[in-house]
Each structure stands twice: as structure tokens, then as C-alpha cells.
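Below is the record:
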Amino acid sequence: MILSACALDSSSQKESSAPEKKGNTESSSATSTEVKEYKATNLDALPNKTKARKDTFIAGISAPGGVFLPYFYENGWDGNATDPMFAPLVNLDPTGKPVGILAEKWDVSDDKLTYTFHLRKGLKFSDGSPLTADDVAFTLTLLHDPAYAGEQDISLTAIKGGKEYKEGKAKSIEGIKVVDKETITITTEEVNAKSLLILGGQVLSKAYYGKDYQFGKLDYLKELYPKPLGAGPYKFVKYVPGQEIRYVANEHYYAGTPKTKNLIFKVIDTSTSLQLFETGELDYAGFSADDDTVEQLKSLGFANLEVGPVNDYGFIYVNNSRPQFKDKTVRQALVYGLDRQKIVDVKFKGYGSVANVPVSKVSWAYNDEGINKYEFNAKKAKELLDQAGWKVGSDGIREKDGKKFVIRYLTRTADDPIIPIAKENYQDIGIKFEPEIMDFNAIVAKLGTKDYDFAAVSTSQILDPSDPVEEFATGNANNAAGYSNPKVDELIKKGLNTLDLEKRKVIYHDLYKELNDDPPVILIHYRQSAKAISGQIEGLHPDNFTGISASLPNISIKK
């Protein structure tokens, strides 16, 4: 998740527009998933700095940490920085469906437990060394090492023998079999819809990253963080902290040398990204969409502009473990009693909509048919609070069992639009609303210990519909809401235990209905962003699942 005052900047490489979705299950949101395109009208207006670049593409990036190794970084911007250098076996296409990259194809056994990846012939890392199935096996083994403490939870795939290897009871992982240099089979013990992408992730060189490998000791890799070696379209040149990351086209890339020789990720302050784009310092930038920004970008004349939905949603955590929030009737009242449409209007000024299901509108799983929209209704909220035993006291504040109904709301900024709207709305229904402004780390700490009432957050990029809902499972270590519902637990598990997309759609629709009736959090918004691309750049097509990374090999500059 992203912790903020529901205030998100959209300059991330991975926040971008998605194609219009088709299908009757999404009819209620068809118009909101459309991407509006505005073509450049005057290339003569290109800044001189832009015109001078004949073989270099520049995009903005915010505050990388310098850990340029997949699976090991903690800063999400490092993830953006590694994407050009490290190719996966399998990635997602612009609609969120899997597509082969280093893997030419893959097979899944009838019982959905064994994956066989067939690598493309002649694959090489950027130093010219061969990339084989041994490197895939090494990567998966590394993720099972007991010293691995990164964010990739390889246990989700339940590879046969993986647990035994991690515990030191086996010297290899039984379920990983290298058939030949271009073929590897991986046998799992549980069906999981996310296994394909996890098993088919970015590949690390065994010769480079594994030469000093010892079981249980991974500190040696830290020396290689600033010296990455991968098989992506670009290879690393240098990193100047606070300034830029430079790359050069990888002549060994499986699909051929990228069309543009040089790639630069320029470290920017998002508050100045518009100015940097206007003056030609950037060829691509993303912005939170609003009328002023969109009109300013259109007026430049030299920009191709895409305005469309972002693959996330914003919400308010509710601490279900506290007595006043355990009753679902109370949580329903809190949703009814908050004018979410007003929050969206104030914040996004026509470039957002109220969220009613916990998945983005660009997801194949999105379906709000039969979902209670919880339209603002103070009268209904009061009735539900009365029903739950919260009676209005002499001071206008509701109380129960001698306890006043007070909500302390954690947020990062004093200008958070939720504050004045929630204060007024909740006061009207007899609840005192008290904001607490604190920094990112402080909020994270309080969420971790469940020392909060409400907290403003947003999801990170959603690659699979299970991503944002898994935390609501009983006992999940990341269940900051302290939520528990056996039916939800069952549906979350069912959603992962089939690879059939149509079946998954039905399961997630049932899950959304249950979460709608028994809300663990207060869903707030879907938002849009504006993507600006210099008119001399061709072949760049940002999408909601890979950002700009999938386009990088095909970017060219008009001469």
C-alpha cells in the first residue's frame, strides 16, 4: 500500500493508462475505463533540449535507493530502475493477461501443479554470457534461502521441497528440475493463480550472483546492488545519487538491440516534473489529472497526452480489532455517513470516482453489479448507529457502555480533504472526528501494532485481483485492519485455487458482495492520471501493468 492523505502523485513509471475494457460484466464502468488521447499539434514547438536528443530517451523517477537487484530492494522506485535491466520469463500484456518474454511458452499439468517453462533459444545476459534453465533454478533457490528477507513471498507457490530446503533439511529443492538448458519444470503442492508470474519472474545470473553463494549467507550480494547484470533491453551504465540513472541499449537482448541507444531515468521532485517536461528535460512524465494540468499540457502543442484510470484505489483503514468497530452495523453506518462523492469531487475535480469494490476498474475482475453503493445517507447512518446501541449523549456525541464515540484519523497532510468533510459528516451523526498528522514511518508503525482508529491509504499497483484482498484473510500478518470473516477467508482461498479466469471472475464477484455487506475498510476513490509523451517519441505505450518498461525496446525518436 501507499500511505498518504489519499494524495498520490502519479509520476510513477508504473502508473499509466489502460485500454478500454469490453464485456457485459463491466458495463457499469465502461466510460470510466476509457483513455482520452490528445495528439501533439505542433512539433515545431518542441524545446531545443528535446530536439537536440537524437539517441536518448529521458523519463522521471523519484528517489531511488540504489538497490538495483530484483527481489532485494525495499524502495519501489528501485523496482522501476531494475525493470529495464532484468527481463522475466513471463510478464503481463496491457490487459493484465500473461505473455511470454524470456519464456517462449509454458505448459501447466492437468492437475495445475507442475509448470514447464520453455526458454527461447540463444538467450544471453547483457555481458554476453548464456542464460539457461540453471539460472532460473538458481533464482528460485535464492528466494528460498533462509537469509532472504525481501518482499517476494516464494512460499505462496508451495514448490515441492522448498520448505525443507529453507529449513536446511535438504541440499536442493525437490520440485525444481532442469530438463535441459532451455527447459525447466517446477512442481508445486498447491494450486495458486499467482504462481505463474512468481515462478516466471525476473531471472538472475547464477554465474554472476551465485558465484559466492553459501546457504544462509546473502550479505555478499550487497556489493552487487550497484553493479547490476541482467537480460533486459538495457544495461546499466552508472547511477549518480540524486541526479540520474544511465543505461545503454543491450545488444544481447533476445528481441534485438533496442531502437534508442541511451536511456536516462532522471531523479526528480514531482512538484517540478511539469516544468521539466515543458523545458525539454523529460520526454515522458506522469501527473495527477486535473483540468489545469491537462489544459496546460495540451497547450504546449508538442505533447502527446493520455488521460485515463490508474491501477489502484484509495481507502481508509478501519481498526476492526477495536470494540467500537467490531460490529459490521457500525462500519456500514460509517460508510453511509461519509460523503465520499464530495471527497472525490474536491480531490480529483472530475478525474476520479467513488470506489465500491476493492479492485481497480482496469482489472478483469472488476464487477460492481449488485453492489450496495452506500450513497451518502446521514439518516440511514444514524438509524444503524442507534440499532448498534450507540446513543446520542447530552453533548451530541454518541456513547455506549460509558465510552464516547471518537475516531482518531491518521493522515500525512493537514490539507487532506477527508478531514473537513469527515469532521462535518460525522459530527452530524454524533461522532467526534479528530485528525492526527504524522509522518510516513509513524503511520506504518501504528498500523503494524494496530494503534489507530482510521488511517488514509492507497493500494499499490494491482497486478492480480487477489493482491489487495489477501490481507483481509484471518491471521494474515499484513492484516492491519484486524478483520476476520470465515466466508471471506474461503473466497480468498478459492480465488487463488483455480487458474480458470472465468471461474475466478465469479469468485471475486461473490467476494466483493461479501466485503460490501461486511466492510473491513471504507473504500474512497478511483483516480485518473495524465501521461505526457514528447511528440518526437514513437513506440511508447504506457500501460497499467508494466508502465513504460514493456515499451522501452521499441521506443524511437523521430529524426
The longest strand covers residues 521-534. The two ends are 42 Å apart (CA to CA). The chain has 16 helices and 25 strands. The CA atoms of residues 474 and 484 lie 5 Å apart.
